[in-house]
Amino acid sequence: MTTRPRKPAPGTPAPGKLALPELAEMKARRQPIAMVTAYDTPSGRLADAAGADLILVGDSAAMTVLGHDSTVPATMGEMIILTRAVTRGARRPLVVADMPFGSFQVSDEEAMHNAVRFVKEAGADAVKLEGGGPMLTRVRTLVGGGVPVMGHLGLTPQSATMLGGFRAQGRTAEKAVRLLEDALALQAAGCFAIVLEAVPAPVATRITEALSIPTIGIGAGGGTDGQVLVWHDLLGLYEGHAPRFVKQYADLAKAIKTAVGTYVEEVRERRFPEQQHTYSMPEEELALFEEALQEVRERR
Ligand code: KIV
User: pLDDT tens across 70-123, in order?
Assistant: First the structure.
């Protein structure tokens, strides 16, 4: 008898999964690529159902779901748990795990070790890492080892302190040229796509034109091959200060507060649960129970 594996092995695309080379073909067809972050199974499932092509399990999780003030505290352990939850919910979109600060900066070997953890333990299809220059050998090592890598240039939140805060990058000709050179180098090193964050629109457009791999913009204008937004920003769930490039498509914080507030009120006023929320039992069983109860009372 032949047995077939129920689940594909890590590194083997699951049935129905968007094929990685399709992204470059989408760029060639000028078909915009939609990416969104997600951090748990329901958001992975909903992003899939909504038609997202790529899901990023961003280290923005440190701020959106773990309550930190920056992305820096995110750990490998946390990111593995969140990525695993997302891959349980998402089928078609490629799931990209964000390598947290400290997980890839030290050495190529450590970067490879942690990237492999994302693929094997969390079912990620690819990883993302921030920066160019010294990170090129990381990209070459990971891609050489069979892990697809998405680059991230411009405002790279893990090094916000060194960049002078959360501010737009590449706003002088010299810095814009450096960004273009970094993007070309990441492409040559083997990245399958690059996130451009908080970069002037004309600079992002020119970089996009110069690359054969897709660019995914966030605060980089409409000339990139795709866009990414953070789940909590898009849905109005993050109540901190939102950057100017965020477009909020819903006010779920308001909807949640109204719904939970109504529930709390109904509990306090004994209006919840109603008849339809409760279980019944046969009349005769209830009568027997009452009798038994009486006996228990008498024995005490
Ligand atoms: O962590 C994240 O969510 C990101 C996106 C903003 C690109 O890196």
Answer: 999 999 999 999 999 999 999 999 999 999 999 999 999 999 999 999 999 999
Atom of ligand 1 minimally distant from the CA of 216: 7
Query: 150 CA to middle of ligand 1, Å?
Result: 12
Q: Using CA positions, which residue lies closest to atom 3 of ligand 1?
A: 58
C-alpha–C-alpha distance, residues 40 and 238, integer Å: 16
In the chain, the DSSP E strands lie at 33-37, 54-57, 94-98, 126-128, 149-154, 193-197, 215-218, 226-229
- The pairs formed by 164-170 with CB atoms below 8 angstroms and a separation of 24 or more are 166/198, 166/243, 167/198, 168/198, 168/199, 168/200, 168/219, 169/197, 169/198, 169/199, 170/199, 170/200, 170/203
pTM for this one? Answer: 0.92
Q: Which atom of ligand 1 is nearest to the CA of 59?
A: 1
Single-letter amino acid code for the residue at 53: D
**pLDDT > 50? residue 5:** no
Catalytic residue among 78, 130, 174, 197: 197
Supply φ then ψ for residue 2, to 5 degrees.
Answer: -95, 140
The residue whose two tokens read 């805060």 is 165
74 touches ligand 1 (CB under 6 Å): no
Rounded CA-CA distance 220/256 in Å is: 31
Q: Is the CB of 224 under 6 A from ligand 1?
A: no
